[in-house]
């Protein structure tokens, strides 16, 4: 490791000032610290968000769950309100990485990092959640821009994420055993306004699948999902799986998710 300074602000306002001046926000550190060790990232100043109480806490507000950005994966997985109101989200959090990652990683850090194979972005996009920042509120459909890229501006910090509670939802993934990231993950949520299907691990970032959503809005059945052709032309192909295999996984995992949702 190389020399750098570490700041520990106590308020969001102080953290924003430090970040605006060039400090690198540190949430759970599961990606950032590994990148620093590999010299892929070399910030001169880290801004540790761990001491900011404003960024913690989980509460149910009407038909919405509000989750503080510094909530650990284990916090979300074990929270009584989340387990009762949105069990699919608790399930997603309970299966991220391994226990050490779940004990340190945060929802805000994962969403801000926007790894193309991370679990949380699919839950956020699949829920049509709202990302609350130090400056504004951003709809999930507008937040995830591309590979490791979001709508966040320099110095802007995620403070919380608001999840509308669905009628039913399921998260299905096939684990990449070496990395514990999903080879492909599908988050499916049904609301009065319609079905949302978000896919992670298959492309250069999380995305919604309109074909599956349209089919399931007409008939919420595994057969309807199976009838949708999944285009593999823009999907990832690597040593772990071909694009065609990932396309097939999207279909299979969506069918499983629907079957589980309908019981």
From TrEMBL:
Span of domain FAD-binding PCMH-type: 1-168
Record keywords, A-Z: FAD, Flavoprotein, Oxidoreductase
Pfam families listed in its UniProt record: FAD_binding_5 (PF00941)
UniProt-listed SUPFAM superfamilies: CO dehydrogenase flavoprotein C-terminal domain-like, FAD-binding/transporter-associated domain-like
Signal peptide residue numbers: none
Keyword Flavoprotein applies: yes
Name used for this protein in its record: Xanthine dehydrogenase family protein subunit M
Organism of this sequence: Variovorax humicola
């Amino acid at each position: 490791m190389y020399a750098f300074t570490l700041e520990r602000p106590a308020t969001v306002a102080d953290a924003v000032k430090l970040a605006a001046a060039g400090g690198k926000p540190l949430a759970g550190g599961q990606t950032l610290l590994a990148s620093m060790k590999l010299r892929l990232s070399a910030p001169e100043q880290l801004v540790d968000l761990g001491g900011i109480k404003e960024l913690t806490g989980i509460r149910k507000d009407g038909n919405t769950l509000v989750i503080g950005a510094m909530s650990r994966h284990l916090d979300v997985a074990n929270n009584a309100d989340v387990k009762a109101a949105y069990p699919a989200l608790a399930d997603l959090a309970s299966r991220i990485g391994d226990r050490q990652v779940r004990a340190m990683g945060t929802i805000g850090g994962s969403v801000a990092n926007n790894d193309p194979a991370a679990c949380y972005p699919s839950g956020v996009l699949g829920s049509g959640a709202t990302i609350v920042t130090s400056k504004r509120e951003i709809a999930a459909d507008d937040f995830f821009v591309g590979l490791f890229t979001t709508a966040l501006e320099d110095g802007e910090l995620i403070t919380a994420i608001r999840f509308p509670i669905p009628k039913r939802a399921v998260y299905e993934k096939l684990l990449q055993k070496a990395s514990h990231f999903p080879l492909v993950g599908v988050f499916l949520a049904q609301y009065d306004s319609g079905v949302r299907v978000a896919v992670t691990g298959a492309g250069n970032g999380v995305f919604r699948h309109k074909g599956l959503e349209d089919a399931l809005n007409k008939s919420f059945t595994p057969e309807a999902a199976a009838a949708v052709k999944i285009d593999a032309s823009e999907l990832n192909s690597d040593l772990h799986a071909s694009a065609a295999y990932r396309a097939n996984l999207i279909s299979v995992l969506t069918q499983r998710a629907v079957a589980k949702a309908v019981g």
